[in-house]
Design brief:
Elements: H1 20-30, H2 35-60, H3 62-74, H4 83-95, H5 99-107, H6 114-130, H7 134-145, H8 156-166, H9 170-182, H10 191-203, H11 207-219, H12 227-239, H13 243-255, H14 269-280, H15 285-297, H16 305-317, H17 321-333, H18 341-352, H19 357-371
Amino acid sequence: MSNPSKKAKTASTSGGPFAKRPREMLVWILQMFSMNEVSQLQRLVCREFRDAGQERIHERGGRTLYEEGKAFLNGYDHYIIDEDKGSLLVYASRDAGCKTALVRNRMLAPDVSDEEKQKILKDLKEISTSSPYHWVDYYISQWYAKGWGGEDKKNQAVVWLERAVHKGNTRAMFNFGKAYSYGRLGLTQSDTKANELYALAADKGHAKARYNLGNHYRTGTGVEIDFNRCVELLNQSAEQGHVTAQFNLAVMYRLGSRDGPPMTIPVDPQLCFRWNLAAAKQEDVDAMFNIGSAYDEGDGVEQNDESAFEWFMKAAEKGDEDAQLNVGEFYEEGIGCEIDLVKAMHWYQKSAAQEYQQAMDAVARLNHNQLNE
């Protein structure tokens, strides 16, 4: 098919404490009660669960919940990224009265007024004074970096960022590294200093820092090129769910020693497929296309026309012109699906609308064939 490779839940009650057998037993037991009693029991149980849940939240403490929530959301401190779980924990931290979480929520509001910006900065500093916390220091640095603490005080961003770094905030380590990498916040650009901070964050399990540092080992940015170290760091980041690391790791296993200088990374179609699939499941369009190509060609996985069609369709629905062309070809030729010339034309036209010449040619050819039938 065209362009074989591109760029380098439903809820279930089938498991857990309410699996099929326990549920059948509960239903049987509840048949001994009147519907009024069942309703009262349900309300009582829900209330008890709610109260117990609130006790558990307060027992854990707002800051602990907030830190865990941020770690799940972004892949900090060796956590595997889980945005749903992270969001729930951040919400729970607010319920537990975490002042940092509550102020952070105000910071994220759209169209924050100048008066509110100053109030937020004041509240953050009060928290920092009364109950020092590395996330507060980091957020104060953000406020100054945006100029919302006064344009003449932007240099304070570095002061507060350093405080957060010294207290162990991995996000601050990463952002400090980025500031050196791009020469921001009034700092002199330095790849060496950037890598030192990325390494500090990477050692503490920051997924994106691991990816950035790994990339620097691939390109030789501020360090000697070391593809083994690159793959090690990208693998750590990918295992944490960082989608860009997953996709780039797939690219490295696809190209192996053909990519630039001599490498010690072998071509490995199975690992290439594994990491493309991980990225594709996170809605990475290029990875979706690559998975479709892998199934189409039997590259790293058993050849399967239906699976190829399924993944090309996923990418096509997200607007990928190559995938749209391939879906059109599949429909026209009946590969992995029933022949449907109407749908074939639909997807050819979608691709052609993006000025893709092969798709334009396909539209013209199909029109010509239909006129001559």
